[in-house]
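INTERNAL AUDIT FORM
Audit reference: QA-55
Scope: verify that the stored structure record matches its stored sequence.
Auditor: D.O.
Record contents follow.
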Amino acid sequence: DLDLTILKMNSATVWVQSEYREGMISTTQLIRAFWLLARYRLGSTSLETALEGAIMTLKGQRERDLKERIHKFYLQKVSDQVRHGAHGVLRQHRDQGHLCYLMTSASSYLSELIVRDLDLDGMLAQRFEVSEGIFTGHPRGGLCFGSGKLDQARGLLQESSINLSDCFFYTDSFTDLPLLEAVGYPRAVHPDRKLLRHALNNTWQVH
């Protein structure tokens, strides 16, 4: 997972603030975004409809413009926010010959920059449907959130000899419970209260 797992920060919160300062979203959209982020942080797993609505706000925007804003945002706000412990864990997995993939509901545009800088093997992230360079307002390949993360992980592994029971998954959020319960080695990282309680009840490792 990315936000509050690999990163010290919630990039979505800082992104919304940045977009508001740049005049890209209205005050109403800002309030709604923070309401969604608060529900996410509290571990709500029923946000799919709201997330689809958030993606719909991209409709009509140029993909190129968003990619440029995200690249600038990454350099200014995100690139120096990787947890020190994340580097150590990634090094341990690489030493064991493991593939390291990012799994996040953050956009693929932000995620590909993380993958590049951390030298990861790939990513499963939120993708957006684009037609002739313009966002349609729909997700591409479904939502990478909640049970959608589990679906995408299964899709990634279906052509390989790797099973989910062979895999580790690190996250801070209770919303990732479907994938945590499916992997062989669930790991809770700076977990929210609901995830911490669940992790302790199931004797999962907590970082």
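Auditor finding: record pair retrieved intact. DSSP finds ten helices and seven strands in the chain.
Action required: none
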